[in-house]
């Protein structure tokens, strides 16, 4: 969404660049590097990006950056609007735009989700997965934690239906969405069984604290309001792009080639992705329900952005800790409930 002047940012905006972004000066050029691309600036633009880069952390308004760098706010906005369009930068002050129409809110959330999804996908966990350096424990541990997360739809999505306080039509659509997802945990359980894990032990295993925290957060969001509850699916459900069976098959085939011991697990990931394609999940339930002309209050707008951003933090912790925990050679796979013997000194065991 742009303002009346066709711009994304304003003097009150709080621009935040991707945390992984770096700036390198090479001769008369400045190169802004993000994991998926490089942006080369020259002349006045190079001088400007060098002057403002350290302030692009989401805590300085454009006006403050202008005062600190002695650069015109109009010039700063012109440069940063381009980076916003590339999803390299967002306005943290989106949450304070006041009341918006449903169309406006959905569009702003979609723009921000592209930014946050890049941030999540550039965590070290994904780097290690894609370069083939994860251990067997880390890959299968990921499968177990993902099973717990997917199966938890029967907690938080059920709550989303029960706590819906909107129209019957909205409740029915939320209920239908839950019905579509309710048995998907079984898909991942079957995949893990094919890779030699016991279904009984996987189901009885304790999710990691970070996995449980993610599920608990989704439970709380589901009880708050249907607006913020469905907004989280903008991040969880799809990247908004059309699903391609060929691309999906190629991607998971590459992972199976890297980790042949997890053929069943990645086969279940592919099966689930193809089901999402059949159910048209490239368009989120949030967009389906709220992309309209109805006015959404400032409070609800703010809660939507705060909720989505906190969910990003939950996902980052989820991936960080499963990578750390299952990276230990003595980690339990699957995890079991603590026993007294776990707390005894090594010399007193057995």
UniProtKB/TrEMBL annotation:
<dbReference type="GO" id="GO:0033732">
    <property type="term" value="F:pyrroloquinoline-quinone synthase activity"/>
</dbReference>
<feature type="domain" description="Thiaminase-2/PQQC">
    <location>
        <begin position="116"/>
        <end position="229"/>
    </location>
</feature>
<protein>
    <submittedName>
        <fullName>Pyrroloquinoline-quinone synthase</fullName>
        <ecNumber>1.3.3.11</ecNumber>
    </submittedName>
</protein>
<dbReference type="InterPro" id="IPR016084">
    <property type="entry name" value="Haem_Oase-like_multi-hlx"/>
</dbReference>
<keyword id="KW-0560">Oxidoreductase</keyword>
<dbReference type="Pfam" id="PF03070">
    <property type="entry name" value="TENA_THI-4"/>
</dbReference>
<dbReference type="InterPro" id="IPR004305">
    <property type="entry name" value="Thiaminase-2/PQQC"/>
</dbReference>
């Amino acid at each position: 969404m742009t303002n009346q002047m066709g711009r994304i940012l304003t003097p009150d905006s709080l621009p935040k660049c991707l945390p992984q972004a770096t700036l390198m000066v090479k001769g008369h050029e400045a190169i802004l590097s993000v994991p998926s691309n490089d942006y080369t600036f020259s002349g006045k633009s190079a001088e400007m990006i060098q002057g403002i880069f350290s302030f692009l952390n989401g805590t300085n308004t454009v006006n403050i950056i202008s005062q600190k760098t002695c650069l015109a706010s109009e010039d700063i906005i012109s440069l940063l609007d381009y980076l916003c369009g590339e999803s390299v930068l967002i306005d943290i002050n989106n949450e304070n735009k006041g009341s918006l129409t449903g169309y406006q809110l959905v569009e702003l959330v979609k723009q921000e989700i592209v930014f946050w999804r890049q941030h999540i996908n550039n965590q070290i966990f994904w780097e290690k997965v894609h370069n083939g350096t994860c251990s067997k424990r880390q890959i299968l541990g990921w499968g177990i934690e993902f099973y717990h997360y997917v199966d938890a739809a029967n907690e938080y999505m059920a709550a989303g239906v029960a706590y819906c306080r909107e129209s019957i039509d909205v409740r029915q659509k939320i209920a239908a969405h839950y019905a579509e997802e309710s048995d998907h945990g079984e898909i991942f359980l079957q995949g893990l069984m094919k890779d030699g894990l016991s279904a009984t032990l996987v189901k009885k295993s304790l999710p990691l604290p970070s996995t449980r925290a993610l599920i608990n957060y989704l439970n709380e969001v589901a009880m708050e309001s249907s607006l913020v509850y469905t907004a989280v699916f903008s991040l969880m459900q799809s990247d908004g792009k059309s699903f391609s069976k060929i691309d999906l098959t190629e991607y998971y085939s590459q992972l199976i080639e890297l980790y042949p011991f997890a053929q069943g697990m990645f086969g279940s990931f592919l099966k689930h992705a193809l089901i999402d394609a059949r159910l048209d999940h490239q368009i989120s339930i949030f967009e389906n329900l709220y992309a309209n002309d109805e006015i959404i209050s400032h409070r609800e707008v703010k809660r939507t952005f705060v909720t989505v951003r906190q969910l990003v933090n939950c996902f980052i912790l989820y991936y960080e800790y499963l990578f750390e925990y299952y990276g230990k050679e003595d980690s339990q796979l699957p995890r079991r409930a603590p026993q007294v013997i776990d707390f005894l000194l090594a010399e007193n065991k057995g």
